[in-house]
Write a structure and sequence with these properties.
methyltransferase; Rossmann fold; 2 domains; rRNA 2'-O-methyltransferase fibrillarin; rRNA processing; SAM-dependent_MTases_sf; alpha/beta; histone H2AQ104 methyltransferase activity
Length: 363
C-alpha cells in the first residue's frame, strides 16, 4: 500500500500511475505544435491523469498510457526514418567513390594482364623514362608506372613483371632483356602521388632515403629500385609482424637497411644511419608532423627534402580533410620545413594528401 495525492489507493493504481508519470514526462511535444499548444496539451493530460487517480479508474489510466506511448512511438519512428535517410545518402556517396576506384583498378589490372599474356616476339609495350629519374612508363593500350627490377626474376608483393629488350651497345652481341616491375598506385601512396602529378619526389638514382612507416616493404622495394645499387633506403617500421616481411625483402635488396623501431625515437637507431637526402613518411599517426621533424633534425641534410603522405582521418576524424591538411602544413612550417607542393591522392586513396617540403637546418 502507498499514499498518492494524500489518498489511499490500490497497488495496481500506483503501478499504472508510475508508468503514466514517466511516459508523460519523457514524451516530447508534437513537431507541428506550437509551444503554447504543447503546454496546453500537457496541462490537459495532467488534469485527466489527476481525475483518473482520484477515481482509481485503471481503465482511464490505461487509455492515457496508450495515447502517450503512441505519441512517443510516432516521434521515434520519425527520427529513425531521418537517421536512416542520412545514413543511406552517405552510403550512396561512398559507393559512388568506391566505383570510381574499382574502375581505375580494373584498368590497371587489364593492362597488367595484357603484359602477362605476351607470348614471345616483339613486346607489345614501349618503355619510356618518366620525368622522375629512375621511374619509367610502360606504354601499351594503357600506361603503367614501372621501376627497373633490382632483383630480376623476383616479385615482392605479387606485382607483374615486364621483360623488355634493351639495345646492345655491341652490334655483335644480342639485345639484352631488362626486367621491370609494375608499380601499382592502389598499393603505394608514392606511386599514387607520381601519377597524380607531383613535380618532384626528390628520390633518384644514388640518393639516400629515410623511409618512415615502411610496413612490409611494398613501396620500399620500388624506392630501392629507383635509387639503385648506388643509393640506400633506411626503412623504419614499428610493427614486428610487418618488420619480418620487410627484413625478408631486404635480404635480396641489399641497398635496403630495415630498422624495426619506433620512429618517435630516432636516437635508438642513430648508429645505423647516415645523413640522408630525402625523408618519405607514411606513418599515419596524429603526431606525424612531429615524428618527421624529429627525424629531419637528426638525419636530413641541410636543404634536403621531405615527402609526407597525410591521411586526414588518422589526424582528426571529425574535421574536413582540407582543414586537416592545412593544419599539418602549419605544423611543418613550425619545424623548419617549407612546403612547396601539395596534392590529393584521389582516385587511388580517399582523404589523403601528399606534401613536399624542403628543410633548412641553418638559417
Amino acid at each position: 500500500m502507498a499514499y498518492v495525492a494524500d489518498e489511499l489507493v490500490s497497488p495496481a493504481v500506483v503501478a499504472v500511475v508510475a508508468v503514466v508519470v514517466v511516459v508523460v514526462a519523457v514524451a516530447p511535444p508534437s513537431q507541428s505544435a506550437s509551444p503554447h499548444c504543447s503546454a496546453r496539451a500537457r496541462t490537459n493530460q495532467q488534469a485527466i491523469l489527476d481525475e483518473a487517480v482520484e477515481a482509481e479508474d485503471v481503465v482511464a489510466l490505461a487509455v492515457i498510457v496508450e495515447d502517450v506511448v503512441g505519441d512517443v512511438v510516432d516521434l521515434v519512428v520519425t527520427e529513425v526514418d531521418e537517421v536512416v535517410d542520412e545514413v543511406a545518402s552517405r552510403l550512396v556517396a561512398e559507393l559512388e567513390e568506391d566505383e570510381v576506384r574499382r574502375e581505375a583498378a580494373a584498368v590497371v589490372t587489364a593492362v597488367e594482364d595484357e603484359v602477362e599474356d605476351e607470348k614471345g616476339g616483339a613486346p607489345k609495350v614501349i618503355l619510356e623514362p618518366h620525368r622522375h629519374p629512375g621511374v619509367f612508363v610502360a606504354k601499351g593500350k594503357e600506361h603503367l608506372l614501372v621501376t627497373r627490377n633490382l632483383v630480376p626474376g623476383e616479385s615482392v608483393y605479387g606485382e607483374k613483371r615486364i621483360a623488355i629488350e634493351s639495345a646492345s651497345t655491341n652490334p655483335d652481341q644480342p639485345a639484352e632483356k631488362v626486367e621491370y616491375r609494375v608499380w601499382n598506385p592502389f598499393r603505394s601512396k608514392l606511386a599514387a602521388g607520381i601519377l597524380g602529378g607531383l613535380d618532384d619526389i626528390h628520390i633518384a638514382p644514388g640518393k639516400k632515403v629515410l623511409y618512415l612507416g615502411a610496413a612490409s616493404g611494398t613501396s620500399v622495394s620500388h624506392v630501392a629500385d629507383v635509387v639503385g645499387p648506388e643509393g640506400t633506403v633506411y626503412a623504419v617500421e614499428f610493427s614486428h609482424r610487418s618488420g619480418r616481411d620487410l627484413i625478408n625483402m631486404a635480404k635480396k635488396r641489399t641497398n635496403v637497411i630495415p630498422i624495426i623501431e619506433d620512429a618517435r625515437h630516432p636516437n635508438k637507431y642513430r648508429m645505423l644511419m647516415s645523413m640522408v637526402d630525402v625523408i618519405f613518411a607514411d606513418v599515419a599517426q596524429p603526431d606525424q608532423a612531429r615524428i618527421v621533424a624529429l627525424n629531419a633534425h637528426h638525419f636530413l641534410k641541410n636543404n634536403g627534402h621531405v615527402v609526407i603522405s597525410i591521411k586526414a582521418t588518422c589526424i582528426d576524424s571529425t574535421a574536413p580533410a582540407e582543414v586537416v591538411f592545412a593544419s599539418e602544413v602549419k605544423k611543418m612550417q613550425q619545424e623548419m620545413l617549407k612546403p612547396h607542393e601539395q596534392l590529393t591522392l584521389e582516385p587511388y586513396e580517399r582523404d589523403h594528401a601528399m606534401v613536399v617540403a624542403s628543410y633548412q637546418r641553418h638559417k
